[in-house]
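Lecture notes, unit on binding sites. The following record was shown on slide 14. It pairs a sequence with 4'-deoxy-4'-aminopyridoxal-5'-phosphate.
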Amino acid sequence: MPIQATEKIWMDGEYVDWDEARVHVLTPSLHYGWGVFEGIRAYERADGASAVFRLTDHMERLFRSAKIYHMEPPVSLEGAVKVTKDLVAMNGVPTCYVRPIVYLGFGEMGLNPLNSPVRMAIACWPWGAYLGEDAFETGVRVKVSSWRRLDANIIPPAAKATGQYLNSSLAKAEAVKAGYDEGILLNPNGYVTDGSGENVFLVRDGVLCTPPLAAGCLAGITRASILQIAADEGIRVREADMVRTDLYLADEAFFTGTAAEVVPIREVDDRVLGDPGPITRRLQEVFTAATRGRDERYRDWLEPVT
Ligand code: PMP
């Protein structure tokens, strides 16, 4: 589905018209994938106001990603937070997806990233359910990918870098071509990491399990939110390595991510897990209430736009 244009995009300190937000074709990041980005959602709250979900946490992760890649964003963290809120208000999209990106701008070409100017942009637009409108209710069919997730000493999964999504997109394309909705990547040692753009959870014997970050998972903000909600709901939680058969034999499984939100997994490699189970349903319910401002316990996660 094409991106639905909004009015303005923030680029290096200015709000420019959507169609004018251009970069030169010789922009080094386009050639070598040296850039870092975020995916954030803003939600219209029950009272009609808009709030960005865990905006500061996302910007902190962006700045951590930039540090790994030797880039100093051309705006402070507080500045990036303010610009995001202003942009959402300016574009009149109380429910939207926000995409900040820090990258190397036009100037020098070559593999030394250290002399190029660091550029930054933030855009936002309305974006629906990432894994499809039905996915939230019925769940998705998943394939364990033949592609392995990047090793931390090859390209660090701790950063959310543009180039590393070659790995995710290979897994996504493979899954889609084979007729599945999403792929899950194992790490080079065969342990479960992430979906192409989501963290993975499973439930077995009433315990909620997710792989540890050291397996090569992104430190997902939805993942952290679900772990907090589970603790608050009295659900037992375990972070532990898991192999692909742990997915096949799970009582319940689901993905978490900003774009996907909380999406049940109904099948893995044609092993049927079935309809979304009670723990998945409860976590979906509380997460949805939290993001829409209907659960007082999580008010701090909502950063109001105005
Ligand atoms: N893993 C990967 C590989 C991702 O791309 C994402 C999306 N950012 C996630 C997990 C989920 O992270 P978050 O909940 O912060 O969006």
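Take-home: The mean pLDDT is 97.
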